[in-house]
Design a protein that fits this description.
- The chain is α+β, with helices and mostly antiparallel strands and about 250 residues long.
- The chain has helices spanning about 170-215, 225-240, and strands at about 15-20, 25-35, 45, 55-60, 65-70, 75, 80-85, 110-115, 115-120, 125-130, 135, 160, 165-170.
- A 3-stranded antiparallel β-sheet has the order 2-1-3, with no helix packed on it. The chain has a two-stranded antiparallel sheet with strand order 4-5.
- It comes from Serratia liquefaciens.
- This is Tail fiber assembly protein.
Amino acid sequence: MTGTAFEFSDNPQFVWIYSFDEKGVFTGTYHYQVPPQSGLPANSTTVPCQPKSGMTGVWDGKKWREVPDLRGTAYWDKHGSPFVVIELLKELPEWAVTVAPPVVEPGQVLLFTDGEWCQLQDMTGKTYYGAYGHSATVPEPYFVLPKGCTFTPPSTPFDTWDGSAWVTDTQAQADAALQDAAQQRQQVVEQAQQQRQTLLEMADQQIRYLADAIELGMQQDGDAERLTAWKKFRVLVVRIDPEAAPDIDWPVMP
């Protein structure tokens, strides 16, 4: 776009001004009175700028260069985030989507794929499992489930994901069950040993007390019988086999 350049005059001049910004981009036109021997306002020219629809002009110091004008154009990324062009661009970003997305439903997220919008379930916060049952949490809406993982929880700690279902290692499960049973058995035996020791200490204490009372002539009625009963009780406790736990018939204290 070219035209007649402005010339100074001794007389006032009425001209159409075509202004541009600091980058030379056309900003508008207006009628202007130029005082005698005065120049044009900064960032302006009298060379007409009349771009076609969808175009604008850029002043290069001598003429207008017509370029595409995308300002005001709305576009979206593939997740539906909106953008608006506010400066001159030669073209939209390669990833730009110009089709407006639909209103997303609760619990869903948008994704533009294969030329159209689709809605995906937002799995953020959901638990997924690795091939050996280790769990993790989905960190963000567009999470892609890694290969060999699943949202289906395993049934046992001995399951392995084969790509379509959990497969239980029955041998490992049986071995673990035996180990657990052995540990539980050991705990029962240790509890019986502790109870046996506690009862023996109680019997020893009572026997010493009653024996001292009788030896010193300080016994009360029934002390001799109680001493005998505690001694019998102690013998019965000593004969207890903790390995027989939990099937132990514990003697009754006197």
